[in-house]
Amino acid sequence: xxxxxEHLLKRSKAAKSGKxxxxxxxxxxxxxxxxxxxxxxxxxxxxxxxxxxDLPNLDPEPEPPxxxxxxxxxxxxxxxxxxxxxxxxxxLPVWAYAFAGTMQQPEVEDELLIQAAELYTACxxxxxxxxxxxxxxxxxxxxxxxxxxxxxNMMVHVARGSDAILGEAYGDPDREGxxxxxGARGRGPMPAQLASLTQLELEMVIFHERAILSGEDTGTPxxxxxxxxxxxxxxxxxxxxxxxxxxxxCADPVRSPGATGExxxxxxxxxxxxxxxxxxxxxxx
Length: 285
Ligand code: HEC
What we know:
two-stranded antiparallel sheet; 10 helices; disordered C terminus; single chain; binds heme C; 1% strand; mainly alpha; Cytochrome Bc1 Complex, Chain D, domain 2
C-alpha cells in the first residue's frame, strides 16, 4: 500500500474543510438574501405608522359604555310580554266596567241565592242535586215549569204535598205528556211542607227550582218585584208560617184542586210574582 505523505493528507483535509466552510458560508448568505425583503417590509410598517401617531387625534375618545342600572338590566332580562296579551290588555277596561257592574248588585241578592240553594238541599235527596229527578219528578230543564207555568200553584202543591189531593189532577191541563195526577208517579208521596217551611222559605225554594234549576226568565217586572219582596223578607227576618188558605185563594182551581181563585182578601197580597194571569179565565168563568 502506498503511503500518502502526511502533508498531502493535511491539504486534502484542509481542502475538504474549506469547501464545506464555503458551503456553510453560502447558506446563511442565501437565507439572508431571501429574508431581507420581509424584514424590510416589517421594518417599513412601523416607520409608516410613526408619523400618524404624531398627528393630533381629532376623533373624540369613544366613551366607555355607561353601566346599565340594575333595574334596567332586570327589565331587559325579563321575559317579554307575548303578543296575544295585547288584545287582552286592550279589553281590560271593558272587563273592569262589566265587573264593576256586577259588583253593584246588592249582597242581599247573593243572600237570596245562597239561602234558596240551602233550602233546596232538603229536596235534593228525592229530586236530584241539580233537579234531574229521582224518587221525585225531574224539576230541571223546564220540567217543573211545564207542570206549573206560574209559581202560585206550585206553592200550593209543595206546601200541602201530594197526599192531600191523591188521585186528583193538578198543574197545567195542557201539559206536554198530559196533566199531572197526584200519586201517579208511584214512588211515594211528595211530602207536605206546611210544618217544615215558612212562607218565605217556601217561596225561596220554589224560586231556586224555577230560576236556578230550570232557568226561568227572572227579568220580567213581576219577577223582579217578587225577588225584591224575598230580599226584603230576608232582611226583615220574616218567619211567617205558610197560610194555605191564602195560597188557595190566590191559586187556580184547574191547576190546584180546592183553590177558589178569588184572590187575596183585603189587606193581604198573593205571594209570588204579581201576575193576574195566575188566575185563569177558566177559574173566573
Ligand atoms: C221524600 C222524597 C221527596 C222529597 C224530600 C221532596 N219531594 Fe217533591 N216529590 C216527590 C215525589 C215522589 C213526587 C211525585 C209524587 C206523586 O206521585 O204525585 C214529588 C213531586 C214534586 C213536585 C211536582 C212536580 C211535577 O212536575 O209534578 C214538586 C214541584 C216537588 N215535588 C217539589 C219539591 C220540593 C220543593 C221539595 C223540597 C222542599 C221536595 N219536592 C221534596 C218526592 C219528594
